[in-house]
Design a protein that fits this description.
The chain is α+β, with helices and mostly antiparallel strands and about 100 residues long. The protein has 3 helices and 4 strands. The mean pLDDT is about 95.
Length: about 100
């Protein structure tokens, strides 16, 4: 329910199947992160770029500040961010560890 009230999202369909998604992954006030995912077999076709471009259009129309971050090892994400006009502002250190239940 909260996503439908605050979030924005787009997807790319191929034969009625979702092959790429782009949406507000995290919302804080008027800042929305951009989460993007494309099925491997549909990669490198510009689908993620098309979805992100549409999402950014709506962010601009609604005066939403877009925020993009990704891990240092996620080179495709970093390249897509640069391609659509984002510039690296800073880096931060993240620690992760597995939780075994």
């Amino acid at each position: 329910d909260r996503f439908l009230k605050k979030g924005i999202g787009y997807c790319v369909l191929y034969s009625n199947y979702i092959v790429s998604t782009c949406f507000s992954g995290f919302v804080s006030g008027e800042t929305h992160t951009i989460d993007v995912k494309t099925k491997k077999e549909f990669g490198r076709q510009g689908l993620a770029e098309a979805a992100v471009s549409k999402l950014l259009e709506e962010y601009l129309e609604r005066n939403i500040t877009p925020y993009w971050d990704c891990t240092k090892t996620n080179i495709p994400s970093a390249k897509l961010a640069e391609k659509i006009g984002f510039e690296k502002a800073f880096e931060y250190l993240v620690y992760e560890f597995p939780i075994v239940i």
